[in-house]
Fold each of these.
Amino acid sequence: MKFKTLPILLAFLLMGVADSMGPLSSQVSSNPFMAALMPFFVFIAFAIFSVPGGILAARIGKKNVLLLGLLLNTIATAVPAFMNPPFALLLACIFLLGIGTTLLQVAGNPIMRDVSEQGDYSRNLALAQGIKGVGSTTMTVLATAGISLAFLPVLQGMGWRGVFPIFFVLMALALFLVSILQVKETKADVPPSIGSSLALLGNPTFAMAVLGIFFYVGAEVCMGTFLKPAFEGYGFSPSSAAWAGPVAFLGSLTFGRIVAGSVKVSPRAFFRLSAFLGLLGLVLMMVGVKSLLIPAVICAGLGFANIWPMLFSITVEEKPEAANELSGLMCMAISGGALVPLLMGRIISSGLKEVDKAWVMTDSKAVMLAFIVPAACFAYLLLLSLKGGKSAKA
């Protein structure tokens, strides 16, 4: 591996900061609907800035877009790192983090080709996706479990804000390393436009795939946001709930990605298996048996792990010459992480009661019922996986 890939891999690692906003939200607000606003403002940015971000990268260069994303993320993490912001300002910072992470996603995948040796791009990109999963898990541990803050009493005293100085330092480091990186970028002959990208939605195959990404990301954010309070509703302590819920989910998700990146598999067959495992885990969550919760979370994590790369590769195989436009549309569909959790949060809210200015779970059935939202998303994905296509023989 070339040394110049390391700053890009660090950028992939730090994409996990945005993923940690869902699990962190339950510490900022005990109201599930209010908590869901935090990932909402992260992922709604993908709906707005993904396609324009791809066009910007074609015009000013992928490295410059990567730098812009890291700069926005550095500013976004600096505010809660150095002050206790009101909730409205916090949401503004999180929206800025969403914009920056969108730009990292848009520029990170193609620039990895530019910094890779010939023949190493696929391997490096698979490694980058695995590192992104490690980043999601690590940032979630930092944001929820707080074990890494035990040797820093000053950060512990900051409460939920204690993780943001760490985020800020890492973002600033990545910004510096990418700024001094020398990259010879490949240029597209005809840069994609908003019109050429959106026109692809007229093809039912592409429209269904984009909707699949929308539902997948929405379901993943639902898990990251509500697993901890759901486990607490079943009697787990806050610390145990963090480990058994979002940390276990993201850990199994990362493990699944690493395994898939090290073996040769049929994308369509693996897509079907992933959708089935994800749906099975979610159904087990809805059963409401405490002893099944952790196995259900692990099963779901393994199922969630490879939906994105499998569905993306299958879709691009349908029209490889439109890979740039399809990538923009897929990133735009990440906005499902903003909208789907709001529905799940509303259902969970029906089982809460405010006691001494704190929200307490009074109806565990509402938690079980709420998991029907990500389960419905995965039911669609399972049906989509059974659909034939040009690459069905893959």
Amino acid sequence: MKQFRHAWVWVVLSAIGCKGSDSKIYRLTEMEVFLQEPTNMVDVLWVVDNSQSMANEQAKIAARFDDFVTGINDAGVDWHVGVVSTDLDDLEQAGLLRGEPNVLTVDTENYRDLFQERVRVGIDGSDMEKGIDAAYQALSQPRISGANYGFRRSGAMLMVNYFSDENDCSDRGELWGLDSDEPCYTHAGRLVPVVDLIDDYRNLVEGDERLIVNAIVGPAISEGCEGAKPGSRYKTMSYAFGGLQEDICETDFGALMEDLGLQAGGMKTSFILANYAVESSIRVWVEDVEMAAEPDNGWAYDAEYHVVHFYGDGIPPRGSRIQVEYEVARPG
């Protein structure tokens, strides 16, 4: 996805007289242009929680794999798929792609069955789920040129999909030896800051290669289900890389797996603005047709992360041009 923008500067006009002042402030107006670039190659890493509470969720991913892969195959995209768990306790297994072969492609015999086996990563893993770092280890040295060699290809889009019902606990040894029942939560301040992990991920791609991170994780605590905890760290990673944030508590993963497949096939559904926008001022066009601001078949604005999300029939088609005009609320 390429992005272009132009803007007008802030202008403040003041006229001060003996009887008072008259000031007018004109907001900065921004126009950003995004291109929904077709994808030729995509490398998809599935990061799946293997703690005791995840058996049902793993089964739901496996059951809906066809909803994911159909969209990619229909788009004629050349794909690689690999699976890792969130368990980094065993240093010999940490970040290793699962199975043999550990990289699945459309040419792999029985790839559907093999994916369904791999994504059922088991439920005997560590209860300190380190999904963000598990992906980073899988995609960096020494794994990427060693045991995981062949997964990443030069020029391919990289997609990372987190599936977990706990928050991320990437600590890089900071919590080792602590006497606590839930050190990931009681000592959360000692975890690797997400901003540092975002910087690490940026180094996983080169040049014009695209990186998308999706988070299928626990919802807000007020909406909790079956003990799932909010996956706020995973969500922040997803927002930083223009991905989806979905609910691990959904009873059926059909819709979300289809959305992931659309993304992998080159149809992004989220676009990050350069600045925070005045929501009432936003106007959106796809190929010069203005789109409605509605959450079913149009677009919606996430004010917390200055992201425009598209839904349903409103998702821009491959190769389309998206324009977003808005008044800037504050710098991004």
Amino acid sequence: MKIIVEPITLSEIKEISKKTFGSLVKAVVDIEKNIMAIDADLHSDLEALLLENGSAQKNLWGINIHPDLPNEQMVEFDSVINLRPSFGNRTRAVDSPQIQKEIINIVNQLIK
């Protein structure tokens, strides 16, 4: 597991995907700090790593990165950690179009 604060290459993401799930990399994005944690079997492990490093729960969103798909399809909003009825998110997806946009912008900044 590692926290990405500086851009990494798409090639690096592809290598990580080959070592884990084959076609995807699990990630958790902190929409306040503009960082993400990657490279774990569970989103909850990545979430815990970010929480241990000062992130706030309300800013963390789980995604899957599919490095072999076109850029506009690369991010999948699907994680159990996204289930947050108290924040208005009642699904495993990210229901807010605004938060989705923020996540995509962060992913695009951090993966070159």
Amino acid sequence: MMARAISQGILGLLCGVAVLALAACGPGDGSAGAAENDNAGGKIKVVATTGMVGDLVRVVGGEFVDVTALMGPGVDPHLYVASEGDVSLLQDAQMIFYNGLFLEAQMDDILRQIGERKPVVAVGEAIDPARLLSWAGKGDEHDPHIWFDVSLWQETVAPVREALSELDPDHAAAYAANADRYVADLQALDAYVKEQAARVPEAQRVLITAHDAFQYFGRAYGFQVRGLQGISTASEAGTGDVRSLADFIAESQIPAIFVESSVPVRNVEALQAAVRDRGYEVIIGGSLYSDAMGDATSGDDSYLTMFRHNIDTIVGALLGESK
């Protein structure tokens, strides 16, 4: 399994907090019936883990949901540890949505425990495993970065619609209409990304980033992808990794490498320096959103705008069009 950055003692403490909070509920609290009663007077209270999942639920739920995302811009979900305040938010929520596939590694046990008392939906685990990439060649563990293939992320719309409709059947038609519109938006985005990717000659479609989050992107849009760190940022890049990747960049004359908004830039800067030591100058082509979206001031605070930023940044840098 992926390395966990939190000790079992801390995890046990947090799980204990969650269990105590849940035990304090009456026998009916957290059930679908209780949530429906609450919804009669207002919006469904939803907690999502990542920004991407939160955005998905906001779009499908529309005016009938009030969504809080635990992990904001620049937050790394691989290393995120639930606070006592997070446990309170999870307890107060009527529904919880998360990515799953062990992305939220440190919260996995808490989410599964709370799921025994209220609706908790792992959107990524509704996807056919045959469409998922394995992690480190292990068939029983999957790469969780499913949002980097737009056609794959489209598969998460249905489980959100179904879960909301089951909890709140009075608004099922609205959830279905919102879901249909969003699927159309995702299909248009997928077409745009393919069109932009095709502008880069196939031999130049090489994407080098801070960690190995873009394998689904590479498979969907025809890029060779190399990450300095592994799939989880809990695994550190060693000097051998830097040397090997620097050799590849210099030998292949790769024009640009990329930092990520949720991963410290120092490793990519060290890689750039190592390439320079080999007599070749590679630029840092920009910052990509990997495990988190942008904030409201960036304009990249939705899945659609975040993905357009990424493909425009990648293509612009690889073609030398960046400003």
